[in-house]
Each structure stands twice: as structure tokens, then as C-alpha cells.
């Protein structure tokens, strides 16, 4: 029996919850990928903002191979050195004093929401369980997090959602003031809303959420699964807002491609309410994952990398806006570091998936944020040359689609 595989095998063997492109990447280096036929692509998607250092970065390869020769897994009956080193670095670099490691952003948000409810119920009783979330948000694919996320299409058809979840529109001050009350245990928000189009939340609105959470003794949760780990040019997006959350979640880029998530919070919240046995994760804090994440974190938090993100993002935004004017396909380009959302217009309005497919044929891989936004999330250390080459290929796509 042959070990050779092809795209058709996906349709033959895989549960069809995804619809991948026809090509199969087999090798990556920096911000370039090659498929089975040897065609090369500039990677402007970074595995949905995951491969923060691109592909096969030497620091990651070294950390993984060294740790693989030492210790793979010990379970949470014990601790391990890579987890402790990474936790200390995260606490030293942020508001946090405690870290919980898991495997994904969904698990990090699940932990955050459980902690917020546990804290509120412990302090005030079983009525204080309401979670305020926002329409258009996305917080993961567990049943709890997908219910909290503000996109009903992801949670419908599976029976009743968990109780106590209230959705309001972003930036609707009156609505959020009506929604937050004595039974509110948490307010959860993405500082930059990713899946609905890379939309930054007004810092004034975040300040309002902070005030309301404090007034009603609810936990303010910032979901920085995508916006964290240098993506915006700040180490974490909250650092540019003047607002400090009680709980922050992150994943994606922190592992640079190795699955890991983290929930960060204060000692006052964690120590009293998440005691041994209340929550856990079999693979959370895995030595391999933490060793790789520590190497990634050491690179992305350097001033040189963060300044480079801001500089390259400004350059990419200028070029994309020029494309929008020349070809009439982008009505707006939103930039939050190397995380850009291009709102489609003209003949391509509502056709983000078709745009993505056309781009792939021209050798540039990007992603989408809903049916009308092209989402670009490059490696944070993409070279100037690869960035411009990818933008050239994207402009070729614009020219072709505009001509049609």
C-alpha cells in the first residue's frame, strides 16, 4: 500500500468541518511554503496568526530538539522546568501573578470563564453567573466558549446553550450599561475583534468596561488569543489601551506553531478560587510546548522585533491602501500591527473566499475574516523582501480580479 497522499484523501477520510484549498504544503522556511508539486507561496496567514516566527525558526527548532532529548511529558502530578520558566517570564512581563497552561485558545477561555463564575459564586452565591459578551466576537469552539462567542451560526443546532450569557453590540454604551448588573460575573472582550474583520475596540469603551466590572465586582477578561504575543506591535494589546484586565487569555502565536494556550490572572483571584482539583488539563504545561513557547516569547518580546512589527505593518498598510485606490476592491484597510483587515468592495464584495483562492493561485496565502474581509497576519519577523514579494503577488490578484 502506498503512503502517498493527495487532497482527495481529505474528502475521503476527514470529518468535513474544514474545506482546505487544493494544495498541500509540505515544507516551510521563514515566510515561504512549498507544496507537493514544489510550487512556492509567501505565507501571509501564519496558520491563522500562529506561526509568529515563520517556519522552522532556528530558536524554535533548537528548543524543541533539545527538550525532546530530555523530557516529553510528566503530567500535572509533577511540575517541570520549562513550564516554570515560561510562567515566570509571562508574569514578569504582564500584570499577571499566576498562569494556567493548556493547549489552545478555546481551553484558555474556558478556564477564564470557569474561574470568573467560580469566583462570583463563591463570593456572592449561585445567582451571580451572568457573562457579558459581544456580538461578532469569537472565543473558541468548546460548547461554553462558542456559546459565549457572539456568532450564533457556530453554536446553533446543538441544543440549549449554557444559561446566563448576554450579548450586546460593541461600542453600544447604553446597551452595555443596561446589561451589566449585580448578577454579572464577567465581561469578556477581544481588544481587537479578529474573526469579524480585525476591528480595534475603542479604548474609551474598554475603559467603560473596566469601570463597570469594578463597580459590580465582575471579572474583566481580555481575550488576546490572536491580539497577543507581539501581533499588534505591543507585547499584548491591552498595553496600548490604558486598561488592565483581571484575566487575560492567549494562545496561537505564543507557541509559534506548537499547541499551547495560557490563562493569566492575579494571585487574589486564582489562589482563592482555583484550588487543587477545581480545574485541570492533561497536557497543559507540557515540557515540549513550554520549551518552544519560551523560545518564541524570548524572540517576540525584544524591542527590535516589536519595532519591526510596527514598521512593517505601516508599510504593508500603505501598499494595501494604494491597491484599494487603484483597483477599487478595498473600501478600507484596518491595521493593528501585522494583522490587517481589508474590507472588500466593488465586484468582490462578499467574496472573500474567492479572493483567497485567487491569491493562492498567484502564490500568496492569506486568510479571511468573514465573507467580506481579507485578513493578513504575517510572521512577526517576516523579511522586508518577503513582505514586498507577497504584496506584489497580492497586487497581481487585485489586478486580475479587477479586470474581470
TrEMBL record:
Cofactor(s) the protein needs: pyridoxal 5'-phosphate
**What does the entry comment about cofactor binding?**
Binds 1 pyridoxal phosphate per subunit.
Similarity-based family: Belongs to the class-III pyridoxal-phosphate-dependent aminotransferase family. ArgD subfamily.
| N6-(pyridoxal phosphate)lysine PTM sites in chain numbering | 252
Involved pathway(s): Amino-acid biosynthesis; L-arginine biosynthesis; N(2)-acetyl-L-ornithine from L-glutamate: step 4/4
What keywords tag this UniProt record? Answer: Amino-acid biosynthesis, Aminotransferase, Arginine biosynthesis, Cytoplasm, Pyridoxal phosphate, Transferase
- Keyword check for rRNA-binding: no
What protein name applies here? Answer: Acetylornithine aminotransferase
Organism of origin:
Uliginosibacterium paludis
Q: How does it assemble?
A: Homodimer.
Q: State its location(s).
A: Cytoplasm
Q: What other facts are recorded? A: May also have succinyldiaminopimelate aminotransferase activity, thus carrying out the corresponding step in lysine biosynthesis.
User: Which HAMAP family does the annotation name?
Assistant: ArgD_aminotrans_3
Q: Which Gene3D superfamilies match?
A: Aspartate Aminotransferase, domain 1, Type I PLP-dependent aspartate aminotransferase-like (Major domain)
Give the enzyme's EC designation. Answer: 2.6.1.11
Q: Name one GO molecular function term.
A: succinyldiaminopimelate transaminase activity
Name the gene behind this protein.
argD
Amino acid at each position: 500500500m502506498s503512503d502517498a497522499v493527495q487532497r482527495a484523501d481529505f474528502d475521503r477520510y476527514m470529518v468535513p468541518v474544514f474545506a482546505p484549498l487544493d494544495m498541500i504544503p509540505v515544507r516551510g522556511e521563514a515566510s515561504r511554503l512549498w507544496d507537493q508539486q514544489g510550487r512556492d507561496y509567501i505565507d501571509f496567514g501564519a496558520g491563522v496568526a500562529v506561526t509568529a516566527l515563520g517556519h522552522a525558526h532556528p530558536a524554535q527548532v533548537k528548543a524543541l530538539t533539545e527538550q525532546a532529548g530530555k523530557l516529553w511529558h510528566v503530567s500535572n502530578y509533577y511540575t517541570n522546568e520549562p513550564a516554570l520558566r515560561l510562567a515566570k517570564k509571562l508574569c514578569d512581563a504582564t500584570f499577571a501573578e499566576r498562569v494556567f497552561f493548556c493547549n489552545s485558545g478555546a481551553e484558555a477561555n474556558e478556564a477564564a470563564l470557569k474561574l470568573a463564575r467560580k469566583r462570583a459564586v463563591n463570593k456572592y452565591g449561585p445567582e451571580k453567573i451572568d457573562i457579558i459578551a459581544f456580538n461578532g466576537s469569537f472565543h473558541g469552539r468548546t460548547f461554553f466558549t462558542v456559546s459565549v462567542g457572539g456568532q450564533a451560526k457556530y453554536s446553533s443546532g446543538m441544543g440549549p446553550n449554557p444559561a446566563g450569557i448576554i450579548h450586546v453590540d460593541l461600542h453600544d454604551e447604553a446597551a452595555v450599561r443596561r446589561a451589566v448588573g449585580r448578577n454579572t460575573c464577567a465581561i469578556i472582550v477581544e481588544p481587537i475583534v479578529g474573526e469579524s474583520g480585525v476591528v480595534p475596540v475603542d479604548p474609551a469603551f474598554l475603559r467603560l468596561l473596566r469601570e463597570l466590572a469594578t463597580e459590580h465586582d465582575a471579572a474583566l477578561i481580555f481575550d488576546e488569543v490572536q491580539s497577543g504575543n507581539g501581533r499588534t506591535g505591543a507585547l499584548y494589546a491591552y498595553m496600548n489601551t490604558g486598561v488592565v484586565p483581571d484575566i487575560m487569555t492567549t494562545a496561537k502565536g505564543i507557541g509559534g506553531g506548537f499547541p499551547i494556550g495560557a490563562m493569566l490572572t492575579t494571585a487574589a483571584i486564582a489562589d482563592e478560587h482555583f484550588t487543587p482539583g477545581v480545574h485541570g488539563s492533561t497536557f497543559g504545561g507540557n515540557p515540549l510546548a513550554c520549551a518552544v513557547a519560551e523560545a518564541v516569547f524570548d524572540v517576540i518580546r525584544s524591542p527590535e522585533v516589536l519595532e519591526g512589527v510596527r514598521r512593517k505593518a505601516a508599510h504593508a498598510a500603505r501598499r494595501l491602501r494604494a491597491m484599494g485606490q487603484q483597483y477599487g476592491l478595498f473600501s478600507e484597510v484596518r491595521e493593528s500591527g501585522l494583522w490587517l483587515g481589508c474590507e472588500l468592495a466593488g465586484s468582490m464584495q462578499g467574496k472573500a473566499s474567492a479572493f483567497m483562492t485567487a491569491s493562492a493561485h498567484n502564490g500568496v496565502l492569506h486568510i479571511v475574516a468573514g465573507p467580506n474581509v481579507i485578513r493578513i497576519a504575517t510572521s512577526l519577523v517576516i523579511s522586508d523582501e518577503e513582505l514586498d514579494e507577497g504584496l506584489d503577488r497580492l497586487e497581481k490578484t487585485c489586478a486580475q480580479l479587477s479586470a474581470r
